[in-house]
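Shipment paperwork, digital attachment
Item: protein structure file
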Amino acid sequence: MIKLLEIEQLLKKVIFRLDFLGEIKLSQQTVDHFKRDLSEYFPEFGEQDKIFVEVLVNEAQKTTKEKRFKSFSFKNDETNNSITLEPYAIILEVKEYITYEDFKEVVQKINRILEGENSSAKISRIGLRYINQIIINEGNPLEWTGLIKDSLISSLNFVQEKNQLSRLMGIIELNRSDYLIRFQYGWFNSEYPNPIAKKEFLLDYDCYSENETDISAIIGQIDMFHSAIKDLFNKSILDGLNDIMDG
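Attachment content:
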């Protein structure tokens, strides 16, 4: 039996991203609001100038259009969690994740601030991604029987020269009525392109919608995405891994 202490890590990163339909207004008041309301989670602040380059192509010619804008970052150097705020998108990256409710609380704060000055803004894309890297410090790196669903590891049977294998990944894409899912899984190999030597397995779930939506609909969307990801994760693992996680 593999002990819990031999699991090095599981959830590597959670990413929440909003892409705006067009450019939203980022006044000094909005930036100050972010700093004030999120300082408990993201005490470090920075900003930098960036250039957005748009390439326009038609039958006669190709033209480029540049637009300068400011990018604001809110970070926590202890947890490596961060928010990047720009006129075209906002990205929340969480590397030290506790519970979904804690994560959702931060998203709700972001949502309230955005609604305060950009209530009429539209979202062109919303995404929630959970990247799980299961790393076990002992055992055959290719042996995941009893831990991962057999249908996700069966492609290994195709490989005869297993000692030469440097990566083996699969992708499943689902088109649901309101959103899309891109699920990547397999032996990602942190030492690629060297042959696989470490016992590592990736379960990467990316849930997103490219339907135009209002800012007010964000929370309902991520609740739906989280539920779908949780369901897929539970279908991906077996009791052996559940037992490890439960201690």
